[in-house]
Amino acid sequence: MTISPTLSIVDCGVGNHRSVFNALQLLNVQAEITCDPQRIASSSHLILPGVGSFQEGMKGLLDRNLIPVLTEEVMVKKKRILGICLGMQLFASEGFENGHFEGLEFIAGKAVKIDTNYRLPHIGWNNVHISSSHKITASFEKEPIFYFVHTYHFVPEDPAVIAGVCDYGSEVTALIEKDNIFGAQFHPEKSHSDGMQIFKNFLNNAC
Amino acid sequence: MLKPRLITVLLLKNGVLVRSNTFSFHQHTGDPVGQVERFTAWKADELIYLDINRDDVHDFRQTMHVIGTTCSKKDLEATMTNDIIDIIREVSKRCMIPLTVGGKIRTLDDIRIRLKNGADKVSINTQALEDPSFIEKAAEAFGSQCIVVCVDVKKDAMTGKHEVYKHFGKEKTGLDPVEWCKEAERRGAGEILLQSIDRDGIGEGYDNDIIRRVADAVSIPVIALGGVGKFEHFVEGLKKGGASAVAAANIFFFHEQSVIKAKKHMAACGIDVRL
């Protein structure tokens, strides 16, 4: 029996939840924007979007008392979670945007400024070199192109969790995957058909 | 590598889309919601909606008959509203690419309600000129990545000097565009939308001189707008102007598959666009 996913878009105060919600509507996925720990615990999948600084993002989660429930659902119950943009960076152990802050510690690593001579923020469409050995990169017939807007990126301790990178004067982490934890530095909800494929891969329980 | 962006600008007046000429003449071009899927399918890289209503009233009733006859998809409901927020909400439901909304943004609440209803970025103009600290407050509250500062410039035909204008291009500010853009960046703007008033609707190409000078002076992306009459002008805006993104309105509305053809032309000129 397949159970259709019920998805919580976690509202930590910063982020374009509406755009993520709209994209899921187009895929006919039942989703709600919530910061209620009970709703989060009862959903089948989680998305943590985020726009803003690392510090604000962590503060938003702390103020809403969401860190215990997220840690329980993701690290203990192994529920699937997709972090988008800042949401993915918050999975790191520590962030270095305007200071030094603790992250959610879902994946060992740090969020650091992109080391490049090009203009920052890195805004626009960039092609992502994907690794075929990950679930999140399934079903792309050619190299996908996604919409990015960010200045910091996730550098994990274990390079094996990197599922995709793009080139912006240096290598930028675009996709990560570790067991039930997925992250996209770009905005799949704003990346047309390639972005929709990321949501489909994330929601596919079969793999 | 990062692709130079091709951006479609949609001008809204009284709840319908219009084309514009030197900021003064406006002609109806259709329904604001019906166009979104078309431009997305054509692989426009971004959409910018600018609300250019001169007053605060969208008298939609007067233009209903226009929408009724020009909506390209009859299965879509015409936007039964005269409220810009309703329009944003409807547009964003179908907008799978970045959406910037500008026009009449005066307060942080104006920004908040637009972002909450599906805009990804906002473009601010007159308010930033009247109170430059507004850029800082906006960037602090919502992040630089969603604050686009729109700068309307006019070249004096006699002296050849460029000047920043405000209030729909009607009032002089005495500001030099390069200095003002540098200040906007310093105060936290994420991008500059550089619009030429005297080139608007003329179709003779961008004002590449001022675009180049601004692009060289700031390190944030500059979006060129105003003057495109043929696809070659996009290439010039990138190569001569040094813009990070090239935008236009009128050219996209009167040609079938305009965005696709524009990108094909750009690719043929060696520009690495998203196809």
List the helices and strands and how they pair.
The complex is a heterodimer of chains A (207) and B (275).
Chain A: E1 6-10, H1 17-26, E2 30-34, H2 37-42, E3 45-48, H3 54-63, H4 67-76, E4 80-84, H5 86-89, E5 94-95, E6 101-102, E7 109-113, E8 122-127, E9 129-130, E10 145-150, E11 152-156, E12 162-167, E13 171-178, E14 181-184, H6 192-203
Parallel strand pairs in A: 1-2, 1-3, 3-4, 4-14, 5-7
Antiparallel strand pairs in A: 5-6, 7-11, 8-10, 9-12, 12-13, 13-14
Chain B: E1 5-13, E2 16-21, E3 25-30, H1 34-41, E4 46-51, H2 64-70, H3 84-94, E5 99-102, H4 108-116, E6 121-124, H5 126-130, H6 133-142, E7 147-155, E8 162-166, E9 171-172, H7 177-186, E10 191-196, H8 208-217, E11 222-225, H9 232-239, E12 245-248, H10 250-253, H11 258-268
Parallel strand pairs in B: 1-4, 1-12, 4-5, 5-6, 6-7, 7-10, 10-11, 11-12
Antiparallel strand pairs in B: 1-2, 2-3, 7-8, 8-9
Helix pairs in contact in B: 7-8
